[in-house]
Amino acid sequence: MDSEDIMHQSFLKTHSKIVLALDLEIQDSQILVEKSLSILDDVKEYICGVKVNRQLLLLLGLPVLRGIVRRAHEYSLPVIMDAKLNDVGHTNAFMTRAFLEAGFDGVIASPVPGWEGGMDSVFDLARENGKAVILLVYMSNPGAAHFYSMIVDEDGRRPIFEYFAELAVQWKAQGVVVGATRPSIISRVRSLIGPAIAIYSPGVGTQGGDAREAINAGATYLIVGRTICSSPKPAEAARSLCEIIR
Prior knowledge:
Layout: H1 3-14, E1 18-21, H2 29-43, E2 49-52, H3 54-74, E3 79-85, H4 89-101, E4 106-109, H5 115-128, E5 132-138, H6 145-148, E6 151-152, E7 158-159, H7 160-170, E8 175-178, H8 183-193, E9 198-202, H9 211-217, E10 221-224, H10 226-229, H11 234-245
Parallel strand pairs: 1-2, 1-10, 2-3, 3-4, 4-5, 5-8, 8-9, 9-10
Antiparallel strand pairs: 6-7
């Protein structure tokens, strides 16, 4: 069973399409751990998974981060490492192996290095361990259009994000990332990848993305961080988002 299967099972349990982005920016490591676990405990009923970015990884390191992964697993919540893997094959393999051994159920990777000597090692390791690879197709920040909408000549002139979406199908990724700030791009990617591959959409709330519009456009799950984590009542913020998109 791969991460997407686990995510779907979690969705069936919690009836939530929200993946908590536990990307807190706290410099004190002890406070960071306590705050992360507290938020996770509070919102566990209103999320279907957890995403961890490099903020926690850099300050805590993998040994401490394992504890947060274990806590999520105690609640039957899959955990994604948002490493945006984007290097040569042997380096990607080293990082992927470390993340999977730490308990992560999937990794987010960039298609930019290509397959041979780039992403092949990531997908091979994930498949060997029954884990997922989620491919970055279009980011949520305002400047993303300068690159992801760039016109390329691979098999005809088209935006590069369309090529990335087709690579996700070709490489058999379990999911793709497309920013919730661009519903029209979500719709286009959905038309290219079909119904079987999950679309994870970050950027709801703080970055201006609309939860309902993203889901209606074809997003499977919403990746939500600051809107929940910065709220004085994280559980209420998560519950309100659930009600909006149910």
